[in-house]
Write a structure and sequence with these properties.
The chain is of the alpha+beta class and 95 residues long. The protein folds into two domains: 49 residues, Double Stranded RNA Binding Domain (2-Layer Sandwich), CATH 3.30.160; 45 residues. It is built from two helices and two strands, in the order ββαα. Strand 1 and strand 2 form a beta hairpin. Helix 1 packs across helix 2. The protein is flat and about 70 Å long. It starts with 5 loop residues before the first strand and ends with a helix.
Length: 95
C-alpha cells in the first residue's frame, strides 16, 4: 500500500480517543462504526441500569455474534457456489 492509500484518523469511543492508520477507502466504514458504537453505548447507559464495563462487554459480544453470523452466510454462499460448480462439472463431463 502506498502512502496515498493510507489515512490517519482519530475516532472517539465514549470519551476515549483512538488514533488509527487505515486504508483511505475504509474511512467511511470506520466513521460509521464510530457513530453506531457511540449511539449503542449511550442507549445502554441511559437510565444507569448498567455500568460502562458491562455495556462495553455487551457491545463486544454483539459485534462478535454479528461477525460469526456474516461469516456463516459467507460460508453458506461458498458451499452453494462450490456445489453448483460441481454440478456444472458433472454435467459437462456427462455430455
Amino acid at each position: 500500500m502506498n502512502n496515498d492509500e493510507i489515512f490517519n484518523i482519530n475516532v472517539t469511543l465514549s470519551d476515549w480517543r483512538l488514533p488509527l492508520t487505515i486504508p483511505r477507502e475504509d474511512e467511511e466504514i470506520y466513521r460509521c462504526a464510530e457513530k453506531i458504537f457511540n449511539s449503542e453505548l449511550a442507549d445502554m447507559l441511559t437510565g444507569g441500569k448498567i455500568q460502562l464495563v458491562e455495556a462495553l462487554k455487551m457491545l463486544a459480544y454483539n459485534g462478535i455474534v454479528n461477525f460469526v453470523r456474516e461469516s456463516e452466510k459467507h460460508n453458506d454462499l461458498m458451499e452453494k457456489l462450490q456445489s453448483w460448480g460441481n454440478e456444472v462439472d458433472n454435467t459437462l463431463e456427462n455430455n
